[in-house]
């Protein structure tokens, strides 16, 4: 019993006096506790030092400095010229503090300090354990805050499809970025830099937005802008590639009732454009413009446009090489806007184009006039129609005059033929007189004479197509025949005197 009591007394004395000595507490709170000096190795390792609102431990070195000591502290921690309320972990030439940098601070902070190569970065890692002495546990780099102010998520040396940053939110906003514009510089809310070092079919994507919502309206990226001298909702700049360079690539899958790879909306008033291209535009599918009747009012036909078209001055020209606007090269065909405006002012428009400096700020405006060449289509069409109407009138008049000439020539030919036949008939003794009456409705009489010494012949009736209608043989050198309407029908007919198979003379008759 005495032995146990003696052991308890000695142990209590050691704990009271020995511990009090090791804890080294003395005086008022100071930035560094150097007095009394750290205990030497003969007393064992130092455990803690206590001051009001402050606990620390010196692990290596002879003071609580920054360069050659290793220690930690918590509470009202010394941190250079400031008093820090939190934790400080100090290694040689580098340290880490967490907490508040003054009593009135609202936001806590994490701050790491270093010199030169010791500055380093702040890493966030996850591991499945603490490992064994001398063998660190396997861990994964989650994020890195660099000493230049950047934050990198994930390990850039690991290749995989897993998301480096995943924001899940069922209501409200998933990510909100607020950037206050500086009057002395450029403010960037979100800057994505992508470096693809692979060669081959791999595709590097700076930002991939995937939305699988099939039950409501969705937006992959929704940008809302407003205010300021120059407001750009979405800016895409491509500095060029070894094969191709595309500033913006829009695609659709072709399965929806309405699809548009690029869709722009703006009021069609003045200097406002749903699409503005400073350079050439190419389309494989053509260009279409709304022209439905239900969209229009005050519809009137184009009239008397030939006179206006005659006032136009088509020209060829070369565009100037201007820095404010990208114009095509080579010989161009068209009109001068100012000249066209004197005839068709509604087909010209004033355009004001902003001019940007190297920082993409508007430095000036470039004003010029444009021409709506599409609007000239209906004007030129109406002109062609008017010209065609004039040509049709002239053709009709020409046809009438030509027919009159043809009729006169035919009459002259017929008269000449009749004269020749009459002369031949007188010479050869044959004749064929005009039927009496002509026209007739019931019957008519034709007097004839064959050549001298000839007593047989024929009087043949033909229609205007040359088809034989009736053949009347004659057996006397001179006589007459009677033809009834019932024998040949109604119409215009030709009757001929035929002798020895040869047509001698022909005349016309009409049956009504």
TrEMBL record:
This is Putative secreted protein (Por secretion system target). Residues 291-398 form the Peptidase S74 domain. InterPro entries: S74_ICA, Secre_tail. Transmembrane segments: none annotated. Residues 377-422 form a coiled coil. Keywords: Coiled coil, Signal. It comes from the Bacteria. Residues 1-20 form the signal peptide.
């Amino acid at each position: 019993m005495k032995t146990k009591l003696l052991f308890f007394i000695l142990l209590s004395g050691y704990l009271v006096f020995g511990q009090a000595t090791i804890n080294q507490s003395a005086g008022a709170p100071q930035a560094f506790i150097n007095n009394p000096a750290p205990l030497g190795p003969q007393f064992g390792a130092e455990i803690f030092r206590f001051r009001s609102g402050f606990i620390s431990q010196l692990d290596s070195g002879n003071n609580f400095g920054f360069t050659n000591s290793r220690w930690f502290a918590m509470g009202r921690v010394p941190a250079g010229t400031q008093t820090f309320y939190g934790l400080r972990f100090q290694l040689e030439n580098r340290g880490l503090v967490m907490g508040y940098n003054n009593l009135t601070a609202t936001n806590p902070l994490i701050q790491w300090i270093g010199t030169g190569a010791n500055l380093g970065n702040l890493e966030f890692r996850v591991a499945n354990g603490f490992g064994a002495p001398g063998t660190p546990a396997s861990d994964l780099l989650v994020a890195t805050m660099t000493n230049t102010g950047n934050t990198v998520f994930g390990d850039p040396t690991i290749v995989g499809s897993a998301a480096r940053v995943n924001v899940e939110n069922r209501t409200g906003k998933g990510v909100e970025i607020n950037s206050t514009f500086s009057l002395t510089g450029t403010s960037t809310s979100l800057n994505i830099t992508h470096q693809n070092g692979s060669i081959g079919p791999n595709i590097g994507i700076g930002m991939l937005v995937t939305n699988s919502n099939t039950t409501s309206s969705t937006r992959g990226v929704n940008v809302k802008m407003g205010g300021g001298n120059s407001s750009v909702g979405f800016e895409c700049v491509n500095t060029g590639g070894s094969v191709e360079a595309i500033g913006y690539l829009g695609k659709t899958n072709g399965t929806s009732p309405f699809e548009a790879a690029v869709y722009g909306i703006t009021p069609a008033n003045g200097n406002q454009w749903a699409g503005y291209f400073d350079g050439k535009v190419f389309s494989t599918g053509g260009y279409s413009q709304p022209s439905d009747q239900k969209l229009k009012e005050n519809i009137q036909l184009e009239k008397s446009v030939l006179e206006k078209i005659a006032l136009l001055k088509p020209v060829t020209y070369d565009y100037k090489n201007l820095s404010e606007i990208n114009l095509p090269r080579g010989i161009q065909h068209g009109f001068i806007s100012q000249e066209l405006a004197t005839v068709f002012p509604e087909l010209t428009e004033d355009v004001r184009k902003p001019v940007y400096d190297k920082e993409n700020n508007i430095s000036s405006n470039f004003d010029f006039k444009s021409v709506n060449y599409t609007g000239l289509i209906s004007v030129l069409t109406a002109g062609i129609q008017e010209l065609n109407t004039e040509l049709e009138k002239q053709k009709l008049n020409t046809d009438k005059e030509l027919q009159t000439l043809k009729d006169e020539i035919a009459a002259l030919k017929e008269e000449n033929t009749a004269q020749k036949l009459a002369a031949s008939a007188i010479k050869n003794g044959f004749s064929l007189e005009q039927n009496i009456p002509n026209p007739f409705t019931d019957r008519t009489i034709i007097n004839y004479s064959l050549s001298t010494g000839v007593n047989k012949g024929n009087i043949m009736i033909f229609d205007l197509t040359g088809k034989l209608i009736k053949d009347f043989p004659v057996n006397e050198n001179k006589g007459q025949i009677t033809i009834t309407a019932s024998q040949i029908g109604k119409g215009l007919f030709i009757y001929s005197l035929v002798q020895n198979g040869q047509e001698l003379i022909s005349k016309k008759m009409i049956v009504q």
